[in-house]
Structure to design on (540 residues):
């Protein structure tokens, strides 16, 4: 009894901290840790969404372990679930390496099916596909077999389930010179047919997704552990024809190799998350020392995509928004601070047009800034939110900038001061409707009478994604108002969390707690109420 009370008490202490967390950003290019503080080992992996959670499966080369599983609701906090496949799971796995495991669910059989790439740990000659199954998503997977699909070699691989429920296995063949797309049988346990062959392109690390009826296949070159230029191809049918390969990302794909593209389907949009590995083998390290590189996949047109890199990424599973930068909660406003060095043409990046100079400045945001004195040259920032603030430096040699949002009338802003001062709020846009917007800051070439020059600098912008700072009353009986005070706020979230761990808080009304309407009151409901309170979602 004392142990149970201690567990409940500990949960009550920890849950408020988790629910009130102010940092939403996920670091990019780091080795993640799970909620217990242990290194997260899911390399070359993929994700399957199931019952309100995202389950992440990947390689773990620790002792007897082959594949580990974690789960999350927000992509930031990952709970370890199980080591789902072990060397000891089957005699065939005793001297095996299992690479790039992916898991999908078969609704006909009610089983979760894993496909992967199998080799001997002593050499790399087997080139076989591997299959294992489980009745529960994070249970122990039962080994089925390894084989060469239709007698072809099979190495780097992925899985894809189409809108019609048919599943496909994509793998590198012929010493990685070819790439094959196979249709699976209805039970997802075998190959039904070979659908398409990319012949002789020497591509590996396939990651496939579909957007508005178009298939996008991202791959890497075959350069071992070393990163290289990713390329993608598109088609309206998996059987082709497929477009010519096009570059995506920079020459090293930001020091990563593709493993999976995860759709983030939310209430406002569907975004796509690039999941890549920064393999430690590139610097002589072990696989388990590898790092994770996540980026938004930007949909530029019906058949054109791009990647945009930032040191942090924010993923909002409720709205479906995936964006560069680390979002934080400031007084119930969800905001992102964006440094001027985050360059590109995608959302939450600075696009510089003209001859902008760059250099260090100790008192500037993150110690750097850009500047320009050429008339009519400018920078733009595309963003999703309701408002944007521009920060820069006032200095003796600075002039006047023209600022506008979405092509509206320009506002003149004077960057002059008698002595330099950095991180000054220069401009605040009007409050905008929630959505995509574009800020433009233009060098006018004009100056006031005291200025020594016409320079305009770029330092940082602050994007206000949402604002729930003003709490308004709601009618009695509103879903989420579990204590009946006519407000849906953090108290309601905390009471729901307390109820979930068995505390039965005074004044708690169960009738208004099941906000996701799944028939049970659990931590998911508490999290949704908390996210509503800080403005991440607009309703239940």
């Amino acid at each position: 009894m004392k142990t149970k009370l201690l567990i409940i008490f500990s949960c009550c202490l920890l849950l408020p901290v988790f629910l009130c967390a102010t940092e939403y950003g996920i670091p990019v290019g780091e080795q993640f840790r799970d909620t217990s503080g242990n290194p997260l080992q899911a390399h070359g992996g993929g994700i399957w969404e199931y019952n309100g959670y995202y389950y992440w499966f990947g390689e773990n080369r620790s002792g007897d372990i082959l594949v580990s599983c974690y789960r999350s609701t927000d992509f930031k906090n990952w709970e370890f679930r199980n080591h789902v496949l072990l060397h000891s799971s089957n005699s065939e796995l005793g001297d095996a390496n299992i690479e790039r495991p992916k898991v999908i669910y078969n609704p006909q059989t009610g089983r979760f099916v894993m496909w992967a790439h199998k080799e001997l740990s002593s050499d790399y000659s087997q080139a076989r596909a591997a299959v294992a199954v489980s009745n529960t998503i994070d249970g122990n997977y039962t080994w089925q077999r390894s084989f060469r699909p239709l007698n072809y070699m099979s190495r780097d691989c992925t899985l894809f389930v189409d809108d019609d429920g048919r599943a496909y296995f994509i793998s590198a063949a012929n010493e990685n010179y070819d790439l094959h797309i196979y249709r699976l049988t209805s039970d997802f346990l075998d190959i039904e047919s070979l659908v398409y062959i990319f012949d002789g392109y020497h591509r590996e690390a396939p990651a496939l997704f579909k957007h508005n009826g178009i298939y996008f296949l991202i791959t890497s070159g075959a350069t071992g552990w070393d990163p290289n230029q990713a390329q993608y191809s598109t088609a309206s049918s998996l059987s082709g024809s497929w477009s010519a390969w096009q570059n995506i990302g920079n020459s090293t794909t930001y020091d990563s190799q593709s493993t999976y593209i995860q759709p983030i389907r939310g209430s406002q949009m569907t975004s796509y998350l690039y999941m890549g590995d920064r393999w430690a083998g590139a610097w002589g390290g072990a696989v388990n020392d590898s790092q994770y590189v996540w980026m938004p996949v930007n949909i530029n047109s019906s058949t054109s995509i791009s990647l945009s890199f930032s040191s942090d990424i924010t993923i909002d599973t409720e709205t479906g928004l995936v964006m560069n930068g680390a979002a934080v909660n400031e007084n119930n406003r969800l905001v992102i601070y964006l440094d001027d060095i985050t360059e590109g043409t995608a959302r939450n990046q600075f696009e510089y047009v003209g001859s902008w100079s760059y250099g260090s400045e100790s008192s500037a945001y993150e110690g750097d800034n850009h500047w320009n004195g050429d008339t009519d040259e400018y920078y733009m920032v595309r963003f999703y939110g309701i408002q944007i603030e521009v920060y820069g430096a006032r200095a003796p040699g600075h002039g006047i900038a023209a600022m506008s949002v979405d092509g509206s009338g320009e506002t003149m802003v004077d960057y002059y001061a008698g002595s330099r001062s950095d991180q000054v709020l220069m401009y605040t846009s009007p409050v905008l409707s929630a959505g995509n917007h574009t800020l433009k800051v233009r060098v006018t070439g004009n100056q006031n009478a005291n200025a020594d020059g016409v320079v305009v600098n770029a330092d940082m912008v602050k994007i206000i994604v949402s604002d729930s700072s003003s709490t308004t009353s709601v009618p009695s009986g509103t879903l989420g108002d579990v204590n009946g005070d006519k407000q849906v706020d953090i108290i309601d979230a905390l009471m729901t969390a307390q109820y979930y761990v068995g505390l039965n808080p005074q004044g708690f009304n169960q009738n208004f707690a099941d906000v996701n309407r799944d028939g049970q009151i659990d931590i998911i409901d508490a999290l949704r109420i908390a996210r509503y309170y800080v403005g991440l979602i607009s309703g239940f």
Remarks:
- The helical segments are 2-19, 490-500, 523-533.
